[in-house]
Amino acid sequence: MGVRQAAGLSAAAHAEAFFFGAGAGSRFCLLREPAGAVRGNVLYVPPFAEEQNRARRAAANCAGQLVEAGFAVLQMDLHGCGDSAGDFSEASWTGWLDDLRHAANILDRRHKAPLWLWGVRAGALLACELIPRLDRAPHLLLWQPVINGAQHLKQFLRLRATREALAMNEDLPNAKAAADQPLSLLDVVSHEHAARRSRGASHALRADWVAGKAVEVAGYKVSPSIAFGLDRAVFALPRGFSSRVVWVENTRAGAERASPASESTIATLRGAGVAVVLALTQDAPFWASAEREEGTGFAAQSAAALSALP
Amino acid sequence: MELEYAVLQILDDTLGLKGRAHFFEPDTPLLGALPELDSMAVAGILTAIEDTFGLAIDDGDIDGSDFATVGALVQWVSARLPA
Predict the structure, then answer these.
(1) Are A286 and A49 in contact (CB under 8 A)?
(2) pLDDT of residue A283
(3) Of the N and C termini of chain B, which has fewer Cβ atoms inside 10 Å?
(4) Closest to B39 (Cβ–Cβ): which among A163, A188, A261?
(5) Contacts of residue B31 in chain A, CB cutoff 8 Å?
(6) What are the residues facing A41 on neighbouring strands?
(7) CB-closest option in B13, B47, B63 to A158
(8) Residue A47: its pLDDT value, please?
(9) What pTM value is reported for the model?
């Protein structure tokens, strides 16, 4: 199955896979372009670690719909991910931002059109930090954005500690390695602290990171740079941000509202004068399950929202 | 009860049960009884609980017994919701 067919594109649209950079700087890109005029450029900013893989299908579905709506969509593998050069353990947070800035420039050279950063999950945090690095303020398309990087990192580290915490007997491939490690999450800061301050990682892991060592979690070797970058990141827009924000989130318990944290963040943004369009979908959480979720709701809401805005 | 429905939906989504979770009763056993409920799934459920209810769970705050049955888990979440 060719790239075009796999990408679900109509015959008129165009898909191109290429690398920018060379050697250790080589980065894989997939660019989809509409047949006709390009009304906007969309740069995909991927989720963190395993969520990246789980999001692939839903992201591909949406990319196809955005192209049908007249947008050029660029997806790339960041340093140490997918088909790009490097090991995950070599990646750095600022390196990832450089990769994305480079990709944004590629889009800008291809088509003079407004840029949308499509931040999925923790990609939203990268998107926020990417904004000041770009020549012009982009719009934001956010999918279930992660608002607190430290909590996201803590949730990721939980994969390592849960087994010990629940005294479960499992034959994990890294079981022996995990058993030799100090219990990582059972001595975290108090509940109050965790809620208020962004200090997710336990002292033991932090010591490893401070010493410059990558820490292995669920098959991912997390470098100190990535750990600290994620740990420090919070969803925040630069003062005076006046571009558009489309926020797509799922709601599963029948409630017609976003999560408490999202509602609070959106209220803060709106209070600061940022125009936020909130779109809710009943989709299953594709980033959280091993099932290949289609994310049809996320795609439909995104295409509709981007098409509706001038 | 809305809380119970939300917790069952989290179980259903995380474990890939395709709707089966909504047939669970409060005394339906979870940990040790559901093959899908491994440590990764537990981590995923805790994360989903945090995100859905706006909680920050101290991992020293949970115990195997909190996952023993549906009812135990619902009660654990309920006790941590803002009043």
Answers:
(1) no
(2) 94
(3) C
(4) A163
(5) 166
(6) A72, A115
(7) B47
(8) 98
(9) 0.86
